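Lab notebook, bench 4. The sequencing result for the construct came back, and we need a structural model before the next group meeting so we can plan mutations. Quick request posted to the team channel:

Model the 3D structure of this chain.
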Amino acid sequence: MRFLVKALPLLLLAGCFPNRPETPPLEPPEPVNAPPALLAVAVPVAKTIPLTPTRLTVREISGIKLEGVEFDSRNHHLIVADQANGPGTKFADAASAAASVRGIAAVNAGFFTPEGAPLGLVVAAEKTSGAWNSASSLGNGVWYKDSSGKAAIVRRESLSRSSAKTVHELIQAGPILVENSKPVGGLEGTKTSARTFILWDGGTRWWIGRSSPCTLAALGNAIGHNPVGGWKARQALNLDGGRSADLWISSQVPGGPLTRRTPWNRPVRNFLVLVPQH
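Done. Here's the predicted structure in token form:
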């Protein structure tokens, strides 16, 4: 009873003040089915950086000529154009792949086997083909986009096989050329070939295109230390190159049109096509 008498004034005093709200969490809870890697790399730069105009960029760095399209994912985005029946069965080249979806630019994308099957996982409009490449350097990186339209480039270890199959679009390729704004070490430095690749600033700015013949190590150093467009790449992923290298840019892109496809190019399995946001 003595305890209640002594505590009563304190209880009455506490009742005069409203309860303090709980401190809100620093980040909203993650959706249950969302790939965790995409949430980890999502950054709020889209709210502060001015919209990057879509345009053709041509630059020479360390003797390597780089040609491609710079764009902002807030007004343009990439989709995968895959050919279920194998290379060349639906699209003869990047231009025809882009025309099939009214795209304004396109590049060849993932590697494929001599039989025409994807060498790695491919997801096109939520339709999965190929198989998860867990060993080869040609599959150590992943470009993907979720159903909300957010895209990223990550290492394959950041995605589980099951979560990779739940995204809306995906190309598994490699090797990663630039990671966390630095050139990746140990890249092959003797074989020279035309390269197709994709760059990302970690936010909403992207670039797709190809290079003149060079080694992977030389390309990684060139784009890791120098901006290709108007910004520095945070991540860069090598796509299929050599005889597969195929870049098409329409006249709708400021600075275009441009086609870079040699007469001895071979048909490829799939493409990344740039289309306007709807």
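The radius of gyration is 23 Å.
Will bring this to the meeting.
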